[in-house]
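From the shared-data thread, chain only:
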Amino acid sequence: MLTKQGGLLLIDKPQDFTSNDIVAIARRALGTKCIGHSGTLDPMATGLLILLIERQATRLQERFLKLPKVYRAELTLGQETDSWDAQGNVLHTLPVPALTLAQIQAAAQTLTGEVQQQIPPFSAKKINGRKMYDLARAGKPVQDRFNTVQIESWTDLSFDGKNKISFTLHCSCGTYVRSLALMLARALGTTGHLTALRRLCIGPFDVKDAFDGRRLKATPREEIVKFLKEPIL
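Structure, as tokens:
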């Protein structure tokens, strides 16, 4: 069994794994059931996931959940999906107007500071104990829900001149990048969906220091334990 001291394990989550998939793999790999994480990543997304190992770390989960985040993302204009990302079904399309990078930067600036965003229908947010994506998949109507988040900045904005915008988003906890991307597309006179998402940072923790999640299942326990960090902010 893993020492009860536990700690933090920074994981670079691969695409097409849920956050719970990674937790389940880590439980088997480390021989402990006491593992939580510091904030869900959608299956399409890659990047930093902080696992909280044993009680010393899991009791601090709320503190880690509240840390700000940094994401790198790609938005494809012109098509809106039901999930607001590339894993959903196309709902409708709109033409993409001629745009300049300066126009995109100006639109992003209007979505900076305190922003009220719609929570995606396909999300893990719970309504009366049921996750919104379960209700959406069952075809049950879900009332629009919103939350207020803090967007510090949009940086490294780039545009391919056609329909793809890439950006780095510095934001508070609770931010759905899918939602911000759709809001940006609508501010530009069209629609769109997220086609790539990678979480780079959670508070002071950087994905550059993370253990490759693709190696988690096959790596000996004693090697994984070497990557544990103290649960200190």
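The chain has seven helices and 14 strands.
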